[in-house]
Amino acid sequence: MMSYWGKAERDGLPESPFHLLVFHSLDVAAVAECLLQRMPWLVAVFLRVLGLPASERETLVRTIVFLTAIHDIGKFANGFQKMRPEVWERFAPPQERTRGWNYGGLLHHGPLGAALLDKGIVRSWFRGNRPTAAIALRTWIYAVCGHHGSPPDISKARQSLRSCFSERNEADAEAFVAWALASLGPDRLPVLPEAAARRSSMLLAGLVSVADWIGSNRDWFPFSSEAIAPEAYWQQARRRATDAVDEAGVVPRRPVTSPTFADLYPEITDPSPLQAAVDGLAFDSQCLVFVEEMTGGGKTEAANLIAAKLMAGGAAHGLYLAMPTTATADAMAEREADMYRRFFAEDGASFAVLHSKGGKKQAELTDTHGSTCAAWMTEDRRRKTVAEVCVGTIDQALLAALPSKFAAVRLFGLMGKVFVVDEAHSYDGYTQEILIGAVRLLAAAGASVVLVSATLSKAVKRSLADAFCEGAGFPLGDANALNDDRYPLITVLDRNGLRDPVATAPTVHAPRPKMIRMVRSVAEAEDVVLKAARAGKCVMWSRNTVDDANEAARRLRDLHGHADVTVYHARLPDGPRLRTQDSLLRRYGKTSRGAERASGIVVATQILESSFDVDFDLVVADLKPVDSVMQTAGRGCRHPRDQDGDPLPRDGRAIDAREPHEVVVVSPDPAQVRSAAWYSSLFPRAAWVYPNAGQLWRTAKVLEDMGEIAYPCGMRPLIEAVFGSDETPEPLLEGSLEAEGEQAAERSLARPNLQDPGRGYEPTIAWGDDQRMPTRLGVSIEIVLVQDEGTGRVQPFDGDDWSSGCMRLSSRRVTGTVPHGLSEDVVEAIASRAGHAEIVLISLDPTHAVWRGGLQSGDKIVPFTVDGFYGLEWR
């Protein structure tokens, strides 16, 4: 069994080093053992999921270590060994070297190993008298052999063993399994209920995958091709594993004990009522928490304190802050990078930014804030989920709930964390359904979940609570707690069911209601914006589409002056988008002063409203669903200021002095509904974004009827008047029912793909990569704009960074890119910064300060222009 290689240099040269298969197997097993020893909570999760008593702890650990040792048993196959012919020919007998051996595709070493073990080795461990135990353990075999991102499909491998393994291969493989069982395994293999084995199999697959990644690192486990007794090598591997696990940064640091709000935020001397309430509550075991408070009420800080308390109580060991967009994740990462070390009593905690372009933000925060993340983690986005504190898009976490490659690794990274979902209300039916599935899966893995929102409907709360209870096995208790109309509100569900909700006082610095002023046309809205700006106020106009935003910005620039109008939306390339974002946060952020804010106009889409801490004197919003209107309204008079717009001290007594406190809503008249085009006649583009005209009509009606958004008592009635009612005028009824049917269809599209904790880590559904498993409905294509200078040379879109031209476009409009003809070297250079984005060449228009290009849409080339102000526009 010592005549097989397990790891080797990729160059294939005869003199290149290699690592014996038995040694690599023991490296990975030693890492798994070290992880289990250093993270006792991980063993506790397995014991709970399996329903085993604490007395079975040692048996469980030794079983996992043994199974991890045989994770690469499929590499004993000649089909695998011949991939390094110079090594294979050194060990294999002549009669085997002259025969062809199959390998590749479904005959990868993972499925081959699972099929070989399934063939009879597993059953032999039980001498045929415990078939149920053998079946349960087979589920775990699939998990350890599926360490390359997906569960092994052994149907073809089972039929092809003779074409992949020689009799010598099988005998040597069985000899190693026997040695590993005797030397590393328990005195007796545990008898696992099949259902429990399935529930735990994805966690095991994640553990083995992480152990395999660490155990394959040559810096920690140098190659060795000189055979020594496996017992002697095992001791070497265990010593190396201790250092490797330390350097990899996967073991959580010790948390602070008894954290208070003042410990986490010493700079905030006057916590909000919500923050003070959380400070006085106990969070010491797995739970689901709903935190409902208006914008500016300190929800993020409250969620961080909940996470800190759960960590201090041993119920969690880190947190993942899930944001709706890349931009909001970057903004939140800036905030968290300043304080994340306060969660821990030890130095060295890892902080990771997780999204498609997180590497750039990660490097920036390391430079500006000194945040640290182990180098091993930064090499692969999927590894970052094991960092103690993660800030990323919700998509990276939701992939754990889908059959996407390495979903098990994502689940392993999330299982010990508090999963905090910001803006929990802001997702469509499809993504909401995946979120429900993720809550169920994480609850089954022992994770706590905190859902943060200004506006969460009772129906959504109930769906999420039911999913958490199903996953964790907790009783719901008194469901009336989910119908509590008080606001702001903290609702906790733990092992005893729902606690009595805790209502808090409204945020001290924003007690004033916002009056609602309705205008009936875009032209009227323009007048409102211009009049306010000319009076020295700063104004935000929230539009529902990029084209609407750009159209309004052009007119306002002509009328008001170019310098004081900014446009911000998702079709800006990354370079200009990040510059614009930084400019907006400086000019309109929390500490901005009246003189710099005066007369500024920002026209934006919803991307600006999702967790950006900006504060305008007046906000104008095109009609959209009421929760989004309230989100927009929260960007007006957000922080207490004097009448000149200068910030007031947040001491509990500051009252915003700006007048008037109002939000202007551009809406057709809800009393005049004559046709199905009630909304689309005013907003033809936005009607594609918000097709449920009945919901929009209820929004317009309740805003007009109430005449104000009263904080906090008016928040819940607004939400329920729209989402808890089905009142719809007759002309809008057919279209609204059709839209509701489409939303139900969206949810149904998500359900078949959701991971079922009870189904386990088996290839019963199709597994794919991240791109094939979308977390949002409506596939997008990522492109990188590259300047074509017409001389055979290309340049980044903006500055010297290729990623400055990155952006995402909806595949409803774009189906592909035009061939670019660039050399491989150039393509690799671009990919090193822009990732997997499709390259799109653009050329400078000789008569305008814009760049021109084209993208594929079906069988046509659709032309576009792009610049740093308006972004990409179709022509």
Low-confidence stretches: none
Assign an overall shape.
Answer: globular
CATH superfamily of the largest domain: P-loop containing nucleotide triphosphate hydrolases
Structure class: alpha/beta
* CATH topology annotation of the largest domain: Rossmann fold
Mean pLDDT, all residues: 88
* Cα-atom radius of gyration: 29 Å
- CATH first level of the largest domain: Alpha Beta
| Number of helices, where a helix is a run of at least 4 consecutive DSSP H or I residues | 33
How helical, in percent, are the residues? 40-55%
Kindly give the count of domains.
4
Strand content is 5-15%
Q: How many strands appear in the DSSP assignment?
A: 26
The CATH architecture designation of the largest domain is 3-Layer(aba) Sandwich
Largest sheet: 9 strands, mixed
Distance between the termini: 66 Å
Pfam families: Cas3-like_C_2, Cas3_HD, DEAD
Domain HD Cas3-type: 14-214
InterPro entries: Cas3-like_dom, CRISPR-assoc_Cas3_HD, CRISPR-assoc_Cas3_HD_sf, DEAD/DEAH_box_helicase_dom, Helicase_Cas3_CRISPR-ass_core, P-loop_NTPase
GO molecular function, one term: ATP binding
Quickly list its features.
4 domains; alpha/beta; ATP binding; Hypothetical protein af1432; globular; 875 residues; nuclease; Rossmann fold
Question: How does this structure look, described?
Answer:
This protein is α/β, with parallel strands linked by helices. The protein folds into four domains: 39-216, Hypothetical protein af1432; 273-503, P-loop containing nucleotide triphosphate hydrolases (Rossmann fold, 3-Layer(aba) Sandwich), CATH 3.40.50.300; 514-710 and 726-743, Rossmann fold, CATH 3.40.50.300; 778-874, no CATH class. Strands 3, 4, 5, 6, 7, 8, 9, 10 and 11 form a nine-stranded mixed β-sheet that branches. Strands 19, 20, 21, 22, 23, 24, 25 and 26 form an eight-stranded mixed β-sheet that branches. α22 links the parallel β7 and β8 (448-453). α1 (21-38) crosses α12. The radius of gyration is 29 Å and the shape is globular. The mean pLDDT is 88. Pfam families: Cas3-like_C_2, Cas3_HD, DEAD.
